[in-house]
């Protein structure tokens, strides 16, 4: 949802396309992860639930899929991280892809079941590709800095005479 929300503030059609493509693909990633979780939990016995530490989740959601972090923090709209500045948003996206890759790395260190590891490896590879594509989009935005980006809302940032008049030593 983050990438699909950010696309509205992206001033370049190539950047919008990257955000749309990756946002759509990330919805498929959610489906893959949810399917893995469902397959791993659907036939657990009450004893297995208690022994695995899955009890608190099970009590609230049975075996339904409720997106949350491994530490139990549920998904919320703060995950969207849409600032409206293409440079800020793309740096956020680059970080998000690296955090997802790190999470998949950690899963692969712990889980040994090939039916889980194979799709997780696939997802990890896609996060690397997404990181690269966001890097390309960031370069596009930075190469085209003009009145169609964040600075259009803050023109004083680019005017050295304004900074000097205010006594700012910015850039020195």
Automatic annotation (TrEMBL):
Keyword Protein transport: no
Xref: InterPro entries: Ferritin-like (IPR012347), Ferritin-like_SF (IPR009078), Mn_catalase (IPR007760)
Residues reported in the UniProt entry to bind Mn(2+): 26, 29, 97, 130
SUPFAM superfamilies from the UniProt entry: Ferritin-like
Matching Pfam families: Mn_catalase
Alphabetical keyword list: Calcium, Manganese, Metal-binding
Cofactor(s) essential for the protein: Ca(2+); Mn(2+)
Cofactor note: Binds 1 Ca(2+) ion per subunit.
Gene3D superfamilies: 1.20.1260.10
Binding site for Ca(2+): 21
Highest taxon above the source species: Bacteria
Gene Ontology terms for molecular function: metal ion binding
Keyword field contains Metal-binding: yes
Similarity annotation: Belongs to the manganese catalase family.
Protein name listed in UniProt: Manganese catalase family protein
Organism: Hungatella hathewayi WAL-18680
């Amino acid at each position: 949802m983050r990438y699909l929300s950010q696309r509205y503030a992206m001033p370049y059609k190539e950047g919008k396309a990257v955000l749309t493509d990756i946002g759509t693909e990330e919805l498929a990633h959610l489906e893959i992860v949810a399917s893995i979780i469902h397959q791993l939990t659907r036939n657990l016995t009450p004893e297995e639930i208690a022994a695995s530490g899955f009890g608190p989740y099970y009590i609230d959601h049975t075996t339904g899929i409720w997106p949350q972090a491994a530490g139990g923090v549920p998904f919320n709209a703060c995950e969207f991280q849409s600032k409206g500045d293409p440079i800020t948003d793309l740096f956020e996206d680059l970080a998000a892809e690296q955090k997802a890759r790190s999470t998949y790395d950690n899963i692969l260190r712990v889980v040994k079941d090939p039916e889980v590891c194979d799709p997780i490896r696939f997802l990890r590879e896609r996060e690397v590709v997404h990181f690269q594509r966001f890097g390309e989009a960031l370069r596009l935005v930075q190469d085209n800095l003009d009145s169609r980006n964040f600075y259009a809302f803050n023109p004083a940032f680019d005017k050295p005479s304004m900074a000097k008049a205010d006594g700012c030593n910015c850039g020195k």
